[in-house]
Design a protein that fits this description.
There is one protein chain. The chain is α+β, with helices and mostly antiparallel strands and 142 residues long. It has one domain. 36% of the residues lie in helices and 21% in strands. The strands form 2 sheets. The chain has a two-stranded antiparallel ribbon. It has a two-stranded antiparallel sheet with strand order 3-4. It starts with 10 loop residues before the first helix and ends in a 7-residue tail after the last helix. The relative contact order is 0.18.
């Protein structure tokens, strides 16, 4: 399924959940998404292990999206749209990846081990204290 079909402004999502819950989930997803994107500073070089990755050209920052998950009836926030490679997962959790190095016009592939540079979990943890405010006044007595 395409991620865009799960955005909160789509008619199918609007029919699936009530307006108050949709508004609260959408705000929560937007806050966590924004926190994750701003944690990735635009810098040269490599971030230290344990710190969010640096945004060299911005593709990781652009691909952090949020949408409604009908199976769990919740909001999901994270990077999508990377067709090749597993860079977002390797950056978040650490692991092995294949990198292409260019030297003197030659391209060589090399397997490297990358230490974790989490950006999604810290974003959720930093926004966790604000999330109850999002739900305030979403349930009204009748």
């Amino acid at each position: 399924m395409r991620v865009k079909n799960l955005f909160f402004d789509r008619p199918a999502v609007q029919r699936a959940i009530d307006p108050a819950r949709r508004r609260a989930l959408s705000k929560a997803g937007a806050f966590v998404r924004q926190r994750a994107k701003t944690s990735m500073r635009k810098r040269r070089g490599t971030s230290r292990p344990g710190q969010p990755p640096f945004a060299h050209e911005g593709s990781l920052r652009r691909m952090v999206l949020f949408g409604y998950d009908p199976r769990t009836e919740s909001v999901v926030v994270g990077p999508v749209g990377f067709r090749r490679g597993n860079a977002p997962s390797v950056l978040e959790f650490g692991g092995r990846a294949t990198v292409v190095r260019r030297r003197g016009g030659k391209r060589t592939k090399q397997a490297v081990r990358i230490a974790a540079r989490p950006y999604m979990r810290p974003a959720l943890e930093k926004e966790a204290r604000n999330l109850p405010k999002v739900w305030r006044n979403s349930v009204r007595g009748g």
